[in-house]
Write a structure and sequence with these properties.
Length: 288
């Protein structure tokens, strides 16, 4: 018989206690420091609504090296009956080896029995195997006789959400965009709009990372790509990544149900040669 959500959350708390004892020196960092407390209160009946999912980082030391790897973990409410979402990054890995490593790690987790708590097992697998991928990355970095100018795919994504309010989420969006060298903007409030532009793989990484299972009302409305050799900055419409602070109107009560001034937003798009996106996002032509 499949475990209930309550039973799964109870197991998640047990595993988090075990992991925090295994990594006592800040090797484990919660994305939301209150997620464990909220889960416990839900199980105790103090909270009626489901808590947000538990997300965290585990910093794994690479053997015989000062290099560290970050294992990003997201636990769906139905974990361990459902597989966790796990993704690894390290400055010592090139993009190809990082992709290979993550595919192998996901495959390894998939081979384990469902219902089994597996985060500590995955962390041990990573510690045992990551040095091989790092060594392969170093070999790929060896210079060739003829150096060819790199070719990239420049990519721009227009993402629409019913709303973007939570301070935690807004902070994550800004941090991820900066870390991945993406430019664009985030329009907070209702509706929420995100534009990112940069190297395609980094755009896709951003899109994968900000989506989480309970963010239902979000979609990529439009994307644009172009192959480019050398620098991509000439194709950017935005100089940096910023959070837009536009005029809002509506109910400023507990629900924060306020709408952003779409006339101002249209003017902002026009300033960045993107007014055609207004119709794609909202289904109506922009008017001044």
């Amino acid at each position: 018989m499949a475990a209930t959500t309550r039973e799964c959350l109870e197991l998640q708390l047990l595993e988090m206690e075990m992991l925090l004892s295994m990594f006592p020196n800040k090797e484990l960092v919660l994305e939301n420091p209150n997620s464990i407390l909220h889960t416990r209160r839900y199980l105790e009946g103090i909270r009626e609504s489901l808590p947000s999912i538990i997300e965290f980082l585990i910093f794994v030391n690479v053997q015989k090296s000062e290099v560290k790897a970050e294992m990003h973990v997201s636990l769906p409410h139905s974990y361990p009956q459902e597989e966790p979402q796990v993704f690894v990054r390290s400055v010592a890995l090139d993009r190809q080896q990082q992709n290979f490593l993550n595919k192998e790690l996901v495959s390894y987790i998939h081979s384990l029995d469902r219902g089994e708590l597996c985060i500590s097992i995955a962390a041990q697998w990573l510690q045992d195997n990551i040095s091989t991928y790092i060594q392969n990355s170093k070999q790929n970095d060896e210079p060739e006789c003829e150096i060819k100018e790199a070719t990239y795919t420049f990519h721009r994504m227009w993402i629409y959400s019913h709303h973007i309010y939570r301070q935690e989420l807004r902070k994550k969006i800004l941090e991820y965009a900066k870390r991945l060298n993406l430019t664009g903007f985030c329009l907070t409030g209702k509706p929420g709009v995100i534009c990112i532009e940069g190297v395609k793989e980094q755009c896709e990484e951003f899109w994968r990372d900000i989506r989480y299972p309970n963010w239902k009302h979000i979609s990529c409305k439009h994307s644009e790509s172009k192959e480019v050799t050398g620098k991509i900055d000439d194709l950017r419409l935005f100089n940096s990544f910023e959070e837009l602070a536009l005029t809002a109107h509506g109910d400023y009560g507990l629900r924060n149900d306020y709408h952003m001034d779409l006339g101002q937003f249209l003017e902002y798009l026009k300033q960045h040669k993107s007014e055609h996106i207004f119709h794609i996002l909202f289904g109506v032509e922009g008017k001044y």
